[in-house]
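Notes from hallway chat w/ T.B., transcribed later so I don't forget. T.B. wanted the structure written out for a chain they're using in a teaching module, and asked if we could keep both sequence and structure tokens in one place. Agreed to drop them here.
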Amino acid sequence: VGSSGLVKNFDPIMKGLSQKYQISAVVIDSNFGFNAATQALESISITTSWTMMSLLVGFIWNILLVLLKKVTKVRTVFITGHIMVKQATMVTWIIFAVMPEFRNIYGAILVGLLAGTYWAVFSNLTVEATRTLTGNSDFAVGHQQMFGIWVTDKIAHKIGNKEKTVENVKLPGWLAVLNDNIIATGLLMIIFFGAVMLFIGEPLLKELDPKAFAGGITFFTYILEKSLVFSVNIVILMTGVRMFVAELVESFVGISEKLLKGSIPAVDCAVTFGFSSPNAILYGFIFGAVGQLIAILGLIIFKSPIMLIPGFVPLFFDNATLAVYADKKGGIRAATIIPIVSGIIQVLGSLAAVYIFGLTKYGGWTGNLDWDTVWPVLGLIVNNLHLAGVILAVVLMLIIPQLQYIRNKESYFIK
């Protein structure tokens, strides 16, 4: 329901931009990205059952890597179920689009190996940073900005002073409303989709979407309704994914606890918010938005054929998480600068990604930081080398925990 609603709502806007300005619109948000990948798979007659099979392979592979941790140096089990569903869908498209001969069980295995290695290796990168943030709590982050967390942990202290934290800053109380993802998403959609619809103009939208105007509503009401319906459909999509994930999570946690004594669970990045000031979360959201706006203005100035529209998930969860880690080691200065840079990368990296992965016409991309940095690189490797590229990508990722272990042998396996 959520997926079809997003497609139906977005269609006249996509057509309007294409007809009037010869540009394509892409929303950079994990829900829109999931929807775009699902549509892309359907266009090559692939059902999401392959995605679920790939997810299972990836989870089993993650478990095996931790079982063999003395060799692999991997300590973390990725158990953020709704993120796994979205990422497995995206990686299924990446593999199946490039290698038609592997649109079968062997392709599902390749997808599982690639996604499962990413889950294991990049969540493992967040262990030390999270220990520093939380005072040695027994969890890591399993989300979509894990590489960003590692980089933030390495550079934040060089940017600012940890003694000057955002906790001492007085922010207007009304900003707390942005902590509610439904309200924040609605506001974002009104601002950005409203601007897009104003650019397209009432006459063309009436021509492309006559049913919506059939009741004689004003253009202002049309903009407001369209924008808020996006938020409604995103909530429906998120609810559906959570309902599905609820059937999986207990099994995932049970398997990992039974088989993997001493392993570290990698969980949703929102868990880290409890270890910081609420100011840091809002700083990340606000300055991440500033960074995205800077990059989008650049796209307009240089007449990009693809227009990117911000989505709530990367803006909030990526940049709020990075601000939390940045504030811990670099205070207010790091919590300001790092989200701005992140916002710029989210837009420019997404621009490269939708081109590499051929998702422009489906109107969405995940947009989270790892998918704007790590995955375009992995995608180029796979696109150019195919099967050899998948193997190479897996091997390169598995080298990372080995390097981590070499740098920190004494306390590496201390939980």
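Follow-up for T.B.: The chain is about 70% helix and 5% strand. Might be a good example for the class.
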